[in-house]
Amino acid sequence: MITKTHLACDSNGFSLTVMLSPGEETDSRYFMPLVEQISLPGGRPRKRCRHVLADKGYYSQMLRQYCDRYGVRPIIPLRKMHRKPRPGLPRLFDRPQYKKRNVIERLFSWLKEKRRLCTRYDKLASSFKAMVTLACIEKCLRADFSDKP
User: From the CB of residue 30, how many other CB atoms can be counted at a distance below 10 Å?
Assistant: First the structure.
Protein backbone atom coordinates (compact mmCIF):
# COMPACT_ATOMS: atom_id res chain seq x y z
CA MET A 1 0.00 0.00 0.00
CA ILE A 2 1.25 3.48 -0.86
CA THR A 3 1.37 6.09 1.88
CA LYS A 4 1.97 9.82 1.81
CA THR A 5 4.10 11.55 4.39
CA HIS A 6 2.84 14.89 5.67
CA LEU A 7 5.43 17.01 7.49
CA ALA A 8 5.25 20.36 9.19
CA CYS A 9 8.55 22.12 9.74
CA ASP A 10 9.77 25.48 10.94
CA SER A 11 11.63 28.02 8.83
CA ASN A 12 14.97 26.35 9.64
CA GLY A 13 13.90 22.97 8.27
CA PHE A 14 13.39 21.18 11.58
CA SER A 15 10.40 18.88 11.64
CA LEU A 16 7.59 19.77 14.04
CA THR A 17 5.21 16.90 13.38
CA VAL A 18 4.78 13.93 11.05
CA MET A 19 1.61 12.25 9.80
CA LEU A 20 1.02 9.42 7.34
CA SER A 21 -2.02 9.00 5.11
CA PRO A 22 -3.13 6.54 2.45
CA GLY A 23 -1.73 7.38 -0.96
CA GLU A 24 -5.10 7.85 -2.65
CA GLU A 25 -6.42 10.37 -0.11
CA THR A 26 -6.37 14.10 -0.80
CA ASP A 27 -3.70 16.16 0.95
CA SER A 28 -6.04 18.92 2.11
CA ARG A 29 -7.92 16.50 4.38
CA TYR A 30 -4.81 16.06 6.54
CA PHE A 31 -3.78 19.69 6.96
CA MET A 32 -5.87 20.51 10.04
CA PRO A 33 -5.02 17.33 12.00
CA LEU A 34 -1.34 17.89 11.17
CA VAL A 35 -1.39 21.47 12.48
CA GLU A 36 -3.32 20.42 15.60
CA GLN A 37 -0.55 17.92 16.48
CA ILE A 38 2.08 20.65 16.74
CA SER A 39 3.04 21.54 20.29
CA LEU A 40 6.05 23.64 21.15
CA PRO A 41 7.51 23.45 24.67
CA GLY A 42 8.43 26.34 26.90
CA GLY A 43 6.53 29.42 27.95
CA ARG A 44 3.16 30.27 26.54
CA PRO A 45 2.25 27.62 23.97
CA ARG A 46 2.08 29.12 20.50
CA LYS A 47 0.37 26.77 18.13
CA ARG A 48 -0.30 29.16 15.29
CA CYS A 49 2.15 30.72 12.91
CA ARG A 50 1.82 33.78 10.72
CA HIS A 51 2.21 32.05 7.35
CA VAL A 52 1.54 28.57 6.03
CA LEU A 53 3.39 27.55 2.88
CA ALA A 54 1.98 24.50 1.09
CA ASP A 55 1.74 23.08 -2.41
CA LYS A 56 -1.34 22.91 -4.63
CA GLY A 57 -2.48 19.61 -3.12
CA TYR A 58 -3.44 21.41 0.09
CA TYR A 59 -5.57 24.08 -1.56
CA SER A 60 -9.21 23.94 -0.45
CA GLN A 61 -11.87 26.34 0.71
CA MET A 62 -12.12 24.55 4.06
CA LEU A 63 -8.40 25.08 4.66
CA ARG A 64 -8.69 28.77 3.82
CA GLN A 65 -11.57 29.17 6.30
CA TYR A 66 -9.51 27.41 8.97
CA CYS A 67 -6.60 29.78 8.36
CA ASP A 68 -8.88 32.82 8.43
CA ARG A 69 -10.37 31.72 11.76
CA TYR A 70 -6.93 31.55 13.42
CA GLY A 71 -5.35 34.54 11.69
CA VAL A 72 -2.90 32.51 9.61
CA ARG A 73 -2.07 33.67 6.10
CA PRO A 74 -2.09 30.72 3.68
CA ILE A 75 0.36 30.96 0.81
CA ILE A 76 -0.86 28.19 -1.45
CA PRO A 77 -1.01 28.39 -5.26
CA LEU A 78 -4.40 27.94 -6.88
CA ARG A 79 -5.22 24.67 -8.53
CA LYS A 80 -5.88 24.81 -12.23
CA MET A 81 -9.49 23.61 -12.15
CA HIS A 82 -12.29 24.34 -14.50
CA ARG A 83 -14.64 25.70 -11.88
CA LYS A 84 -16.66 28.82 -11.70
CA PRO A 85 -14.78 31.36 -9.55
CA ARG A 86 -16.25 32.15 -6.15
CA PRO A 87 -17.75 35.60 -5.60
CA GLY A 88 -15.68 38.22 -3.81
CA LEU A 89 -12.15 39.48 -4.16
CA PRO A 90 -9.60 36.93 -5.36
CA ARG A 91 -6.81 36.07 -2.95
CA LEU A 92 -3.44 37.37 -4.03
CA PHE A 93 -0.60 34.89 -4.24
CA ASP A 94 2.69 35.99 -2.68
CA ARG A 95 5.28 34.41 -4.98
CA PRO A 96 8.42 35.71 -3.15
CA GLN A 97 7.12 34.30 0.14
CA TYR A 98 6.23 31.00 -1.58
CA LYS A 99 9.87 30.57 -2.64
CA LYS A 100 10.69 29.94 1.03
CA ARG A 101 8.87 26.62 0.65
CA ASN A 102 12.13 25.10 -0.55
CA VAL A 103 12.93 24.47 3.13
CA ILE A 104 10.36 21.66 3.31
CA GLU A 105 11.43 20.37 -0.10
CA ARG A 106 15.02 20.14 1.14
CA LEU A 107 13.80 18.29 4.24
CA PHE A 108 11.95 15.75 2.09
CA SER A 109 15.01 15.42 -0.14
CA TRP A 110 17.19 14.78 2.90
CA LEU A 111 14.73 12.12 4.12
CA LYS A 112 14.75 10.43 0.71
CA GLU A 113 18.51 10.03 0.97
CA LYS A 114 17.90 7.58 3.81
CA ARG A 115 17.81 4.17 2.16
CA ARG A 116 15.38 2.68 4.64
CA LEU A 117 12.86 5.47 4.08
CA CYS A 118 13.30 5.68 0.32
CA THR A 119 12.72 1.98 -0.34
CA ARG A 120 10.16 1.61 2.48
CA TYR A 121 11.40 -1.61 4.08
CA ASP A 122 8.85 -1.32 6.89
CA LYS A 123 5.52 -3.00 6.28
CA LEU A 124 3.63 -1.37 9.13
CA ALA A 125 2.77 2.32 8.93
CA SER A 126 3.66 2.73 12.61
CA SER A 127 7.16 1.38 12.00
CA PHE A 128 7.63 3.63 8.98
CA LYS A 129 6.43 6.68 10.94
CA ALA A 130 8.86 5.78 13.73
CA MET A 131 11.75 5.68 11.25
CA VAL A 132 10.75 9.05 9.77
CA THR A 133 10.60 10.47 13.31
CA LEU A 134 13.98 8.97 14.12
CA ALA A 135 15.49 10.52 10.98
CA CYS A 136 14.06 13.93 11.94
CA ILE A 137 15.56 13.58 15.44
CA GLU A 138 18.91 12.73 13.85
CA LYS A 139 18.73 15.91 11.76
CA CYS A 140 18.08 18.01 14.88
CA LEU A 141 20.93 16.35 16.78
CA ARG A 142 23.34 16.90 13.90
CA ALA A 143 22.48 20.60 13.88
CA ASP A 144 22.85 20.95 17.66
CA PHE A 145 26.11 19.06 18.02
CA SER A 146 27.88 20.09 14.85
CA ASP A 147 31.26 21.78 15.03
CA LYS A 148 30.06 24.95 13.35
CA PRO A 149 30.75 28.20 15.24
Answer: 18
